[in-house]
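Reviewer 2 asked us to include a model.

Predict the structure of this chain.
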Amino acid sequence: MERVLLRRGNKASAKYWRRVLLPVIERYRQYDIPKFFRGDAAFAIPELYAFLEAEQFFYTIRLKANAVLEREIEHLLTRPVGRPPHQPQVFYHSFQYQAGSWDRPRRVVAKVEWHRGELFPRVGFIVTNLSWRSKNVVKFYNGRGTAEQWIKEGKHAVKWTKLSCRTFRDNQTRLQLFALAYNLGNFLRRLALPKPVRHWSLTTLREKLIKIGAKVTRHAKYVTFQLAEVAVTRSLFAAILDRIARLAIPPPLVT
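Predicted model (structure tokens):
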């Protein structure tokens, strides 16, 4: 997670997009790599389009349907002839469109799905500056669903929606701590888990490795941690500790 911001409930979800996006863009400005942005319909903001284009970002952003957009795909809104197949029938259409608040025309990709047993098609519009085939543009945009699954995992594993402090500023701080814990958990999962358990979710990681009881026995020269092998076996626990030890910064060379 690059950045998180707590907003008041009476503000639109994309109200403070500059506060969130500008520091992230600045962080990656020095890297000579392709940069992409995906956003839902809340981010369909003309100022954001122009900003991303100036920063040489490729973007795909959902557009809400309107009468002008629907006229562009009118030829796809007639039910296909013949018995409908079990699989949905999907059609794509790309065209140039300029809303009244836009400074210039931009490419819009439409996706029309006819599902068996449904009277009307499912229609979606995406504004983009990508030159890919329409099908690939939609496929790339749909990757947002994977990102939302990671967000949902954070809500369940880290409980970052539990903001019970009295003041807004305190809850902001608490949310940042939750985000830090989420990233630390992800780093641990990606860098320290051996291959057999790399599929563990953050919830499983918390319950089996972090939030687990142990008996501590102190001696004069060493400390012993006694853990049950029900959740994590001895060999697996040792392998995880070994991988964590490798992440340490090596000591400087003495010359």
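The chain has two domains: 17-142, 152-246. Strands lie at 36-39, 58-63, 89-97, 106-114, 122-128, 215-218, 223-226. We have added this to the supplementary material.
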